[in-house]
Amino acid sequence: MSPPPGPDRPLRTVVAGTNFGRFYLDAVRAHPAFTLVGVLSRGGARSREAADRLGVPCHSAVDDLPEEVDAACVVVPSAVMGGPGTELGQALLRRGVHVLQEHPLHPDELADSLRLARTAGRQFRVNTHYPHVASVRRFLRAAAGLRSRQRVLFVDAASPVHVLAPLLDILGRALGGLRPWRLGDPAPVPEEVRAAADGEAPVRLLHGAVRGVPLTLRVHHQLHPGDRDNHALFWHRVSVGTEGGVLTLADTHGPVLWQPRLHSPRDEGHRLVFRAGPGAEGLALPVSETLDDAPPPRFDEVFSAWWPEAFGIALTEFADAIGAGGDPLRAAGHDLAVFAMWRDLMARLGPPELVRPATPTPLAARDLLGERPAPSPSPGASPVDDPPGAGYDQPAEFFDLGAGEHTSRTGPAVVAALSGLDASAGPLLDVGAGTGLVTRQIADAFPDCEIVATEPAPGMRAILTARLAERADLAARVTVLPEAAHELVLPERLCGAVLCGVLGHLPPGARGDLLRGLAARLPPGAPIVVEVMGLTSPVSMPPTRLRSATLGRLRYEWWMAGEPSGEDRMRLDTTWRVFDGERLVREVRDHYHWYTVGLERLAEESGLALHRPPPPHRTLVPHLGVLRGAERTGVTR
Predict the structure, then answer these.
(1) Quick check: pTM over 0.85?
(2) Which domain holds residue 618?
């Protein structure tokens, strides 16, 4: 007999359904508490192909499953949606298998499955998925903080009809529960209004009350019968209002916004006060703030990162419930309320209108007002695409965790490349100094040298400044400037320059102008130390973990992915994930564009001679070189 599931033996799990179930297959394989042992399907070709690809058997009936299966994810439409999912889940429970089932379920189906799970001594859970998405989790945390301070005065919500159950789950979590609720019937659309709109009325409006809070609900009440997900006009939107302001989940995938209440006091003459000051402190608040710690994701990032993370959280909760072994029916009060309210709502709305619209044309923000103008370049320089510091400010707090190992090699290589520096010729310019990991090594190696360190990202610059201020000797001779490389006003005289991880941010014209401008201010033969990524042409880069580090109880992972975004340019997406044990507790994303360029091309563009650092640095830091003014242009080694 095999040991029971536990820390040393993951739950042997099958996944039923391989359409949307693809997410569950990946999530089960990635989760340490589960191990995938099979696919359960009707035996279709795609399911067999998925099973073969994953190296597990494909079973066509519950009775065919081996005895040792512990858990199942049922990703098949339930009876209320016209599918066999509920019947399948209950058959698995009778076999002694714990079940996680995809939404939605009729409340009677749910209650029957929970009672069966209680009788069988197993767990049954429903996954509504969307409350586990990162932006919704952030909204729910903020809603809990808001409720603890002020009474909720209203809720305004919107959803497509086919994901109404997850919306109600989100509302219940945001308000601390759903009971009691009361729903009115949808507002009728007057015929003259429908006629004026060419017969179109895609959105239905109804009013209600949830947990004593007035609710306004708008539902996109149309479905494409063969492609419901691709034709929703919008996704979940929720606004929670109090006397202090309005908290809004603008979309299922963010952003999360806070808009403080506009309130202007009156002076002794009963005139409105328009300036912040004593008694009018609220006027100093920004009219709107985002609670997100990273830019909104791209749609492909939703599918590649945000949703897999959400399914991982659902599996963690499922595993925790199995480990705790509690009464599944007693623990499901919230779910029972969600699907009871969903049944009430769907009965009032009636069947959705079936539509078959043409394939939509999504628009980017820049399409609305025309192409965004590029930032004004410095005289003689080419324009650049990203704002100064783009890609580095959001994840600045983690930078040292990821870059420490690399700069432990880069710093000595830079110092070796600067050998023979004449500090009397002027300051050394460190462009894009980041958090100062290399700057400090340069300063220690050349104690008589004045240094000017530039860093445009405010978060990185704050760490750089703090690192230098810790030591009186560095604070006395290192100046920090906020300008980006293409914005620099160069000093008249320099003794050397360092540009590590900088030049790929500039297009060719700006790169060449900057390097020639530096060379013109250096003594003959003085070094310009450059480091690039080694990407000489755009490539597709799948998400790759670059670093992993531990700090106290938390583990940090640095991931990067990239895609071509032009003939010689890539978009690079960075993600920092913070784990407490195996639980993901934070995720910070950012991106920037990088012009792919090698050291030889930099030499050609600038007309400077390229030299390699001495051994062993040439091997340890292969994409670092030294550019020097020479009698002739070219490349030397």
Answers:
(1) no
(2) 396-536+598-628
